[in-house]
Amino acid sequence: MEWVRGETIGCGSFGAVNLVLPKNAFSKSPLMAVKSCQLIDSVSLKNEKEVLDRIGSCPQIIRCLGGNHTVEKGGRLYNLFLEYADKGSLADQLKKSGGRLMESDVRRYARSILKGLRFVHSKGFVHCDIKLQNILLFGNGDVKIADFGLAKRNGEEEEEEEEGEKRRMEIRGTPLNIAPESVNENVYDSAVDIWALGCAIVEMFTGKPAWNFKPGTNMAALLIKIGVSDELPGIPRELSEQGKDFLGKCFVKDPKKRWTAEMLLDHPFMACDDQIVSNSMNRCEEEEEESTSPRCSFEEFSASPKSPFEFPDWVSSQSSSSSQSSSSSQSSSVPSFSSYISSPLDRIRELACDEAANWSVSERWITLR
Fold first, then answer.
1. Which helix (H) or strand (E) holds 81?
2. Were both Cys, which of 47, 133, 160, 202 would link to 210 (CB 3.0–4.6 Å)?
3. Do domains 3-83 and 90-155+170-276 have the same CATH topology?
4. Binding site annotation covers 253?
């Protein structure tokens, strides 16, 4: 596809993100974004393309649509094409929502992120930079993990220095979301994504980082707190008990005891919405069953009337106690509502026939005055 660079919609340490505009105005190509950087600095973007190509397609992972080289303004650029997220990032959504999200929204976003992480981890990779800025939203409701520039194979050892066998210390991702084992042992396995997810959930719910980190605070002091101390990220007190327990499973110092994405998807906090829907459906089914019982009055107003006068004898709630005796004495002489009102299905059949329905005054009407 021949394309031209559109407006800038973002930027990062790698370079800039622009909209992709096809040269052919009638092109049927999907709307795309392009991440570009100088070819000499393209290690991160090339790594992102390689990882996305290897892990394959997943509804919760941003799609890679290819890459190429261009020469612009005398410089050679590497371009990575990705599907365009028209609703921006989860960080943008947090700002639009006044700095914090409802727990139901937090749960929904977390569920999508976990599904994406489960897929990534099953393919043998670690994202290494889970944060709100790297979770993209789409107008159709999709939530997808993006920015795989720092991703690596699960269990892959970091580079070792030529002199000596000590590993080179390398900070991957955002320090505020980094896991203790990454600080202490320079380890970046699948468990680090779960720790970072917990930090992201706290930020979604409170609008603040999981760690109380004020501008100007020494970064080394923060890393020591994360790696050495027994302190854990703060869990919001306003969060439900299930939510607190869920975060407790994310914020486990020992990565071997930290829950996996697969385990967390089965946590009650993730199933809460589904349970609410299930309970609501069960209540509806129970009400429907009760409506067929002689003890239930639902039948009295379940049929659609043909005219404004075709309603049962309504009893005022204010005078119900005083009129109970008189209404019961008249019940034998007044036919039941179901006896003179045809069913909705019968109404539809009447309307569906060739001859127009007769809605003129008939003996089936009730005279109210």
1. strand 75-83
2. 202
3. no
4. no
The domain ranges of the chain are 3-83, 90-155+170-276, 304-314+334-369
Instruction: Give the pLDDT band of residue 68 (cuts 50, 70, 90).
Output: very high
> Coil, strand, or helix at residue 281?
helix
Q: Which CATH architecture has domain 90-155+170-276?
A: Orthogonal Bundle (1.10)
- What is the structure's pLDDT at 317? 41
SS3 42: coil
Selected from 3.30.360.10, 3.30.1330.60, 3.30.200.20, 3.30.70.360, the CATH number assigned to the domain covering 3-83 reads 3.30.200.20
> H/E element holding 106?
helix 103-122
Q: Is 219 exposed, middle or buried (0-12, 13-18, 19+ CB in 10 A)?
A: exposed
- Whole-model pTM: value is 0.71
Q: Tell me how far apart the alpha carbons of residues 160 and 181 are, in angstroms, rounded to a whole number.
A: 17
Catalytic residues: 129
**Gap between the Cα atoms of 100 and 94, Å rounded:** 6
What whole-number percentage of the chain has pLDDT above 90?
56
Question: What H or E segment, with its residue span, contains residue 2?
Answer: none
H or E stretch covering 21: strand 16-22
